[in-house]
Amino acid sequence: MILSTFLMAVANILHLIIQIYIWVIIISALISWVRPDPYNPIVQLLMRLTEPVYEKIRRVMPTNFNGIEITPIIVLLALQFIDLFFIRLLGEFAASL
């Protein structure tokens, strides 16, 4: 009972963190379309939150096709997969205990 409640809480917190990071990526992608001021603190925060993940993906595969950067789309798909598969699997495991 305690373990299942703990695992369910962990699954819910991980789900929330993934959802927040998805919104950070979406906002960062939308802001990048308007040529933002690089000295703006919000822009700097968004860059610090997204660029480390983007750089890891860019090292593995080409992500710029005809001037269109698809790294945010790849990260969003990966996060959705993690959320729908692993987090849901953890929640189902917790419910079965």
Automatic annotation (TrEMBL):
This is YggT family protein. InterPro entries: CCB3/YggT. Belongs to the YggT family. The keyword Transmembrane helix applies. The chain crosses the membrane at residues 12-34, 70-91. Keywords: Membrane, Transmembrane, Transmembrane helix. It comes from Campylobacter gastrosuis. It holds the Pfam family CCB3_YggT.
